[in-house]
Write a structure and sequence with these properties.
The chain is mainly α. The protein has helices at 9-44, 72-91, 127-137, 142-147, 152-159, 165-173, 184-197, 204-220, 234-246, 258-261, 278-288, 311-315, 320-329, 331-336, 354-362, and strands at residues 109-112, 117-120, 176-181, 271-274. It has 15 helices and 4 strands. Pfam families: Sulfotransfer_2.
C-alpha cells in the first residue's frame, strides 16, 4: 500500500500566490489589450471612412455633376477640396474666433498679383521648390538664385510682402490659390532631420539641438538601441515637442501644424496638393495658372535622403503612446487632409506601462471641436 504524500504548507501557499498573480494579471492586462486592438484600428483607418468624407465612386455616373467632366487629376483635387470643406465644418474650424485655429492667419501667404497666384508656404512640404518658383516669377534669374547668399524666403519677401487680411481675401477672389500638404508624421521627421540632425553650426536650430540634448538625454539613455550623437536623437526631439505642447509653447514654424499655420478652414483654396502626388498636382497648378514656360514641376532640396524611406528607422525608436500623442498634436492635419496612422503606429515599441498607452488612447475622446488637442 503506497502512502499518500502530504503537501508541504509552503508549497501550497506558493501555488496559491501564483494563481493570484495570474488572475490579477489577466484582469488588468486583457482589457487594456482589447481596448488597444479596437481603438488603434480606428486610428489606422483612413479618414475617408468617417461620415463627412466622400465615399469612393465606382463609376463616373455616381460622381457629383461638377466632377463628371473632369480628368483624373482634377477629380482627385476636387475631392480633396470638398473633403476639406466638410471636415472644417464637422470639426467646427470654419467658425471665426480669436484662437490660432479660428482666426485667419495671412502671415505665411505669398501673393503674386502679376500672375494671379496665391500660395501658403508650408515648410517641409515642397516649400523650397515653390519658393524658387515664386522667385523666378518675381524676376530673379536662375543664375542669381544659384549664386545668392540671401535666404530664398527673404528674397521672396522683397517682392511679395506679407499681406494684410483684407488684401489676401481680395486676392482669393481672382487668383489660383493652392496649398501643398504632406503626411504630418513624415513632415515632422523631415523637419527633425533637416533642422536638428543636420543643423548648420552657429544657427538657431544648432543651439536648440544642444538645449534638447542637455534636458532630455538622461531620459532616453536607458532605451534599447540608444546611441549618443552630437545632435538630438529622434526620441529626444519628440520628448521636447510633447513638452512644448503640454506647456502651450509656440512651435517652430517647420513643425507647426498646417491647421494653425495656414488656417485652411478660413479660406477657400482652389487646389489642395499633396507631396504624395506632387508631380501631377504641380503640373495641374502650372496649367491652371497659365504658367507654362515660366516655371516647371520640381521638388528641390530632396535633402539628406528620401524621408519616406527613413520612417521605419526613426518611428521604431518611439513608443506607441508617443506616436499616439503626436497624432493628437497633428490631429486636425490628419483629419483635414485625409491622412491616417496606418504604417506608423505599428512601428512603435510596446509601452512598459500599459496605463501610459491607455491614457494616450483615451485622449481621442476629449471634446476638441473648439480647442486645440490636449496631451496628458
Amino acid at each position: 500500500m503506497r502512502l499518500r504524500r502530504r503537501k508541504r504548507p509552503e508549497e501550497s501557499a506558493w501555488r496559491a500566490v501564483r494563481r493570484c498573480v495570474v488572475f490579477f494579471t489577466t484582469i488588468c492586462i486583457v482589457p487594456v489589450l482589447l481596448v488597444l486592438i479596437v481603438t488603434t484600428d480606428s486610428y489606422m483607418r483612413p479618414v475617408k471612412q468617417t461620415p463627412y468624407h466622400r465615399p469612393q465612386f465606382d463609376s463616373v455616373e455616381h460622381l457629383e455633376p461638377n466632377l463628371q467632366n473632369l480628368t483624373g487629376v482634377e477629380k482627385r483635387l476636387e475631392r480633396r477640396r470638398l473633403h476639406l470643406q466638410k471636415a472644417c465644418k464637422l470639426l467646427g474650424l470654419n467658425v471665426p474666433g480669436n484662437d490660432s485655429l479660428h482666426k485667419p492667419n495671412p502671415w505665411e501667404f505669398l501673393i503674386d498679383t502679376k500672375h494671379n497666384l496665391v500660395w501658403c508656404n508650408v515648410f517641409k512640404a515642397a516649400s523650397t521648390s515653390w519658393m524658387y518658383n515664386f522667385n523666378i516669377l518675381a524676376g530673379y534669374s536662375p543664375y542669381f538664385l544659384k549664386k545668392s547668399k540671401v535666404v530664398p524666403l527673404s528674397l521672396a519677401r522683397q517682392k511679395y510682402p506679407r499681406p494684410s487680411l483684407p488684401f489676401l481675401k481680395k486676392a482669393f477672389n481672382n487668383s489660383v490659390s493652392f496649398l501643398i500638404t504632406r503626411h504630418p508624421l513624415e513632415r515632422l521627421l523631415s523637419a527633425y532631420r533637416d533642422k536638428l540632425m543636420f543643423a548648420l553650426p552657429h544657427t538657431h536650430h544648432r543651439k536648440l539641438g544642444n538645449e534638447i540634448i542637455v534636458k532630455y538625454r538622461a531620459k532616453v539613455k536607458h532605451q534599447k538601441g540608444f546611441k549618443a550623437e552630437k545632435w538630438p536623437t529622434f526620441p529626444e526631439f519628440v520628448l521636447y515637442l510633447l513638452d512644448c505642447v503640454k506647456q502651450s509653447q509656440t512651435l517652430d514654424m517647420h513643425w507647426t501644424p498646417i491647421a494653425e499655420f495656414c488656417t485652411p478652414c478660413m479660406f477657400n483654396f482652389d487646389i489642395i496638393a499633396h507631396t504624395e502626388t506632387l508631380q501631377e498636382d504641380q503640373q495641374y497648378i502650372i496649367k491652371k495658372a497659365h504658367l507654362e514656360g515660366l516655371v516647371e514641376p520640381q521638388w528641390r532640396n530632396a535633402g539628406h535622403g528620401t524621408t519616406a524611406r527613413q520612417v521605419r528607422k526613426y518611428y521604431s525608436q518611439l513608443t506607441r503612446s508617443q506616436i499616439l500623442q503626436l497624432y493628437h498634436i497633428y490631429r486636425y492635419d490628419f483629419e483635414l487632409f485625409n491622412y491616417s496612422l496606418k504604417g506608423y503606429l505599428e512601428l512603435g515599441q510596446l509601452d512598459d506601462d500599459p496605463s501610459t498607452l491607455l491614457a494616450a488612447i483615451t485622449l481621442k475622446d476629449f471634446p476638441q471641436s473648439k480647442n486645440k488637442p490636449r496631451l496628458y
